[in-house]
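Q: I'm writing up a methods section and want to include an example of the input and output format. Could you take the sequence below and give the corresponding predicted structure tokens, formatted cleanly so I can copy it straight into the document?
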Amino acid sequence: MSRWQAVCGDKLVSVEDALKVIRPGQTVGIGVNANAPEFLCRALAEQLHDWGDLEIIGGAAMHDLSFYTPEGASRLTLRDIFITAPTRLAMRAGSVDFLPLNTARWPCDVAAGSRPVDVYLISVSPPDEHGYCSFGFMLWSSLEMAEAAKVVIAEVDEDHIVTYGENYIHLSQLDYLVEKQGESTLGDVASVMGYEAPSDVDRTIAGYAADLIRDGDTLQIGAGTVSMAVIEHLHEKNDLGLHSELCPTGVAPLIAAGNINGKFKPLHRHKAICTALMGDEFSLDFAHRNPAIELYQIPSDYVVTP
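A: Here is the clean output for your methods example:
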């Protein structure tokens, strides 16, 4: 038994035992995007016949699960705040209820109690020596959802990176923990989200956009091919700041090289602020325990609605 397993004590249970807390008619929340615990969700999909009238709330799904198919989604109430490749066919078939909430407002209805969540499924790192777990390379609204849910079940992923900011939750806030059951099939986040490589047209537009960026400016970078192409032009800029929903692939090398250093930021000076990292292996390794990068929740005063 490893150190973190011993720290968890009786909270560490099997996937089967953890899912027994779910009752027919309840609402189950799933972590957004890469915060979704893949193997807990796969076990949930296999056992859907055990529950009747189940409601699942998620967003930006990254894994192909049976309840995301048109047929599977029709057997329960499935609500989604951001449609991606795994849920797109079910959405077109009318099997998914789309929640029209922008990222700055999610999960306002859950936090206010108007859309209560009975059980929340999330992915975390092993607890550290102080009992704190990280949500990995994406935070979104994971902490607020966990605090609003009646029961929280966390899948422990030993491959998760640890970052600073608000990206942590204490063991005492988790009701059950389960061990990750295999290797993740997540793959590249941008491709699963449906973003292709920038085209020549994208790069032309990006060139004009980059001309508007001055040394010392603070940037908000969204998802998309033009945004990714703009990053390619930032190696010629100096003393940039980052206060952004996303930290896409290509940003970490700019921080490492000093192009992005936050020198002139009035808020969180010398810090790159975001709520999610969408980078390659270098980017994630670079962000691990790096004080230059901090993750904050999307409903907070730091990200999306400063």
